[in-house]
Amino acid sequence: MSQQDTFLYALSSNNAWAGYKAHQNPNFFPKLASGQSPQILWLGCSDSRCPETVILGLQPGDVFVHRNIANIISPTDINTSAVIEYAVVHLKVKHVVLCGHTSCGGAAAALSDTRVGGVLDTWLTPLKAVRFAHQEELDAIKDDKARAVRIAELNVEAGVKVLMANFAIQDAIRERGLEVHGCLFDIGCGRIKDLGFGTKGRNGASGGLNGSSEEVVRGKHAQLAFRGGNAQMIVR
Amino acid sequence: MFNARLVASFLTRQSSSSRCATKLNSFSRLSSTANTTTQLRPGVRFCSSHGSFGTASRTAANSLTHQSSSSTTTTPTPRFASSSNSSSSSSSSSDVAMYLKQSHERVFESNRTWAAEQKARDPEFFAKLAAGQNPEYLWIGCSDSRIPAEQITGLEPGDAFVHRNIANLVCNTDLNAMSVINYAVQHLEVKHIVVCGHYGCGGVKAAMTAKDMGILNPWLRNIRDVYRLHEKELDAIPEEEARYNRLVELNVIEQCRNVIKTAPVQQSYAKNKFPIVHGWVFGFHDGLLKDLEIDFEAVLHDIQKIYNLTDN
Ligand SMILES: [Zn+2]
Ligand SMILES: [Zn+2]
């Protein structure tokens, strides 16, 4: 097994995952193959610690995703624009969620005066602009981590503004009640906080801590096991 | 060809990471997505979250870094908040507002449950995550909602740096994707870059439709260019679906080439012998990833005749 590595691991566990999913529900993959109708467009950071579908507790088919460095929404970026257009106009998602996160490397880079190099400095320009627009407030924060959190929030606020100015989004808000949300994922505790930007405004924040009566569901445990180089799902 | 021996040695770098921590796959929600039946029945559903791709597999696959898998057997039963409206569409327009509110609440509810689960299983889980990231992978995939990278590969939070766009394209003038590659290779020093496409890609289909799609035109044009590069081969495939499937594969191969054409990849490989670039295709019919077995060394060599960005 010492020759195993994460690459082989990923392919192998995919094999097991697919087998288990099909075993558990023979209709799962045929249903997936028939098309997608996600309710959520997620715009987030590429950071490996923010796997959207996992942290949202959702399933394949639920979340249409674009992730880039520091979840920057730049109005002239053709990549993001294409994603937004496709999700809002063609798939007709019901929510657009722009989500930043704590301890973001992009935020830290934007707060620094050193050159990152390559194409990155150009990409980070909008985030630098956020920094300079809020220089005083940011300078007043003495703690480095807290300052990075604050610029991440301001970045989401700026991004939501760009989203709200997008014509496809404006049309969808007017015509079918599309909602736009600005959130922050706290890597230190795993929770997403609704920052209240977007269609709902400040009062609409719903990320409160006192979650209403949650129905608890228990099921069978299963785990992936390697035997002789093959992976399989074991249900206990 | 991908060289397993080459990269095996990189594993030790991660020995202090938190990979024993389990992850949530939220498979319990499977039926509510796949079926229209949304009622949750205790005991029927695979709860898995952690079990599925977490501890045991990682431990076994990566015995260099993790010795014990016994912790999984004692983990608490995962809990999931129920939801009654996961995939239904509202039938009455008067319900729309209520429905939208509920479906958004669902997100925060699921997230709270997930966070609580992780913490119950490993109190240090988030503290370790917050300490930094050291991903082995850069995943470049389609935005399509049906292909969450982590769930289909069993990778944990912290394992894969992710960029997803329409039809998993890597265009040399796209600052967005180029910045992702730059950061992942030069700053995070990922060992593998996976370009993952999928059969039945709506982006690829849209690109081959004779229609003006506005702001999508410049983006989707890249797929038409892939077709033009492989026109003979594709035109020779009589059946339409088979032709699309092949176009999906060729698109992945071309995007892998585009990744290899970048300066960070060429320079890092010259110096470190990584990253290695892989092309995969995900199939919805069976949920399996197909490795297109791109010969990285050969492609790199090929490309550098014209696109060499190393200093020699
Ligand atoms: Zn980030
Ligand atoms: Zn696609």
TrEMBL record, chain A:
Catalytic reactions on record: hydrogencarbonate + H(+) = CO2 + H2O
Cofactor comment: Binds 1 zinc ion per subunit.
UniProt key word Nucleotide-binding: no
Keywords of the record: Lyase, Metal-binding, Zinc
GO cellular component: cytoplasm
Molecular function per GO: carbonate dehydratase activity; zinc ion binding
Cited Pfam families: Pro_CA (PF00484)
Example GO BP: carbon utilization
E.C. code: 4.2.1.1
Residues bound to Zn(2+): C45, D47, H101, C104
Keyword Metal-binding belongs to the record: yes
InterPro entries registered for this protein in UniProt: Carbonic_anhydrase, Carbonic_anhydrase_CS, Carbonic_anhydrase_sf
Cofactor(s) the record lists: Zn(2+)
PANTHER family with a match to the protein in the record: CARBONIC ANHYDRASE
Function: Reversible hydration of carbon dioxide.
Homology family: Belongs to the beta-class carbonic anhydrase family.
Protein name as annotated: Carbonic anhydrase
Source species of the chain: Apodospora peruviana
Automatic annotation (TrEMBL), chain B:
Organism whose genome encodes this protein: Apodospora peruviana
Cofactors (names): Zn(2+)
Entry protein name: Carbonic anhydrase
Spans annotated as Disordered: 59-93
InterPro entries hit by this protein: Carbonic_anhydrase, Carbonic_anhydrase_CS, Carbonic_anhydrase_sf
EC code(s) of this entry: 4.2.1.1
Entry similarity comment: Belongs to the beta-class carbonic anhydrase family.
PROSITE patterns hit by this protein: PROK_CO2_ANHYDRASE_1
SUPFAM superfamilies: beta-carbonic anhydrase, cab
Biased composition (Low complexity): 63-93
GO molecular function: carbonate dehydratase activity; zinc ion binding
Keyword field: Lyase, Metal-binding, Zinc
SMART domains given in the database record: Pro_CA
